[in-house]
C-alpha cells in the first residue's frame, strides 16, 4: 500500500508543479481543489451509487480522457482544470483514500479507512 500512496504523492507533486509551470492562478487552484469531493453526495442515494459517483470523480481515467480530448482539440486553455483534478486525486491517494468498493465508503482499494484502522501496523 505504501507504493500506491507514494504514487499519489508523486502525482500530486507533478500535477502541482505542472500547474505552476502553466501559469495557473493559485486562487482558482484553491477554489477548485476540492470540487471532485462533491461526488460524495452520491452516498445520499446509497453506498452503491455513492461508490460509482466517487470512483468516476477519483479515477485517473477521467482526467486522462480529458487531457487526451484537450490535446486532440488543441484547447489548452482548460489544461489547468485537468491538472487540478489530477492533483486532487493524487492528494487523496497519498492520504490513503482509494477508490471505493460498493460495500461502503470505508472500503477502498487501498484498504479500510477510519480512525480505528489508522492505528493498526
TrEMBL record:
UniProt keyword terms in alphabetical order: Membrane, Transmembrane, Transmembrane helix
Q: Which residues cross the membrane?
A: 26-45, 52-72, 78-99
Task: Name the InterPro entries on file.
Answer: DUF4260
Q: Per its record, how is this protein called by name?
A: DUF4260 domain-containing protein
